[in-house]
Each structure stands twice: as C-alpha cells, then as structure tokens.
C-alpha cells in the first residue's frame, strides 16, 4: 500500500482528535466512562490544548473506565510520578497498588482539567498511536515498547 495513503489517513484522524469541537471534559465517573464509544479506536488527553497522552484500545469505553483507577491505567501512574513524586508521603503506584490517597486526590483534581477526544477506528490503532507519539511526544506516555 502506498505510504502516502496511510499518511493522509493518519492526518485525517489527527485532525479529528485535535479539533476542539470533539473535545469533552474528563469527568472520571463510571457514567462518563460508559458514555464513550464501545468500539475499538484511539483517544487523546489534552491539557491546556496540548496533547499529554495518546492511547488505543479494542474498546474505548473499557479503556477509559481504566482511567478511574491508578492500578489500571498508566496515565494516572505517569501523572503521579511526573507531578507529585516530590510530595511527602508519595509512593509510586503499580498494577497492584494505588498512590497514597492524598496523591490520588491531586491526580483526580489535575485530570478534571483535561479534555478527552476519541475516534473509533477499526485498523491502524497502534500505528496511529506511534505516529502521534513520534510527532508530539505526549509527556504522560511512556516510551512505546513496540519495535518500529
């Protein structure tokens, strides 16, 4: 397949996600997560208009629901480590344990100022995630582990 066709499609997807008309506030409730598309697709978090996280999933609503708990989503763990690791009592979260309550409260407060943009797509999710990562290097993404 002609790589220019893929490039054009990635630009179309990025235009959709970067269009502020498609941004919704992050609410961090079960109802909010369940209101997201059930299909596979890509999503981005923005803070002050800047992409801070790009992700992909086989179920957007399921992955967005993972954002409700630091044990289930790296964006929360990354945010805690990047912004709050110098605060007394900080403890790094993992897939088995959350941050301490006072750090979790700061993470929630911070994320409530984020905006979310989603787009269901059937194929090319991982490649699009890498495309955005390479172009914008969202600060809350960990370096992608897939080989190029």
**Total strand segments:** 4
Widest sheet: strand order? 1-4-2-3
- Amino- and carboxy-terminal Cα gap: 17 Å
Mean pLDDT, to the nearest integer, reads 93
Radius of gyration: 15 Å
* CATH-derived topology of the domain at 3-70 and 114-136: GIY-YIG endonuclease
Q: What fraction of residues sit in β-strands?
A: 15-25%
Structure description:
The protein is of the alpha+beta class and 148 residues long. The chain has a domain at 3-70 and 114-136: GIY-YIG endonuclease, CATH 3.40.1440.10. The chain contains 6 helices and 4 strands; from the N terminus they run H-E-H-E-E-H-H-H-E-H. It has helices at 3-18, 30-34, 60-66, 74-84, 101-111, 125-136; strands at residues 24-25, 41-47, 50-57, 115-120. It has a 4-stranded antiparallel beta sheet. A hairpin with a 2-residue loop joins strand 2 and strand 3 (50-57). Helix 4 (74-84) packs across helix 5 (101-111).
Question: In terms of topology, how is this protein built?
Answer:
Elements: H1 3-18, E1 24-25, H2 30-34, E2 41-47, E3 50-57, H3 60-66, H4 74-84, H5 101-111, E4 115-120, H6 125-136
Antiparallel strand pairs: 1-4, 2-3, 2-4
Helix pairs in contact: 4-5
Search tags:
148 residues; alpha+beta; four-stranded antiparallel sheet; 4 strands; 42% helix
Q: Brief description of this entry?
A:
The protein is of the alpha+beta class and 148 residues long. Helix content is 42%, strand content 16%.
């Amino acid at each position: 397949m002609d790589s220019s066709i893929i490039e054009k499609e990635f630009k179309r997807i990025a235009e959709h996600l970067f269009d502020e008309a498609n941004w919704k506030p992050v609410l961090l409730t079960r109802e909010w997560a369940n209101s997201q598309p059930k299909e596979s697709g890509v999503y981005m978090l923005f803070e002050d208009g800047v992409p801070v996280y790009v992700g992909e999933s086989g179920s957007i609503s399921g992955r967005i629901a993972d954002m409700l708990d630091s044990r289930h989503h790296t964006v929360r763990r990354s945010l805690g480590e990047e912004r709050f690791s110098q605060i007394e009592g900080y403890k790094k979260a993992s897939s088995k344990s959350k941050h301490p309550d006072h750090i979790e409260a700061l993470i929630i407060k911070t994320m409530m100022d984020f905006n979310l943009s989603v787009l269901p797509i059937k194929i090319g999710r991982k490649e699009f995630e890498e495309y955005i990562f390479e172009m914008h290097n969202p600060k809350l993404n960990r370096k992608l582990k897939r080989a190029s």
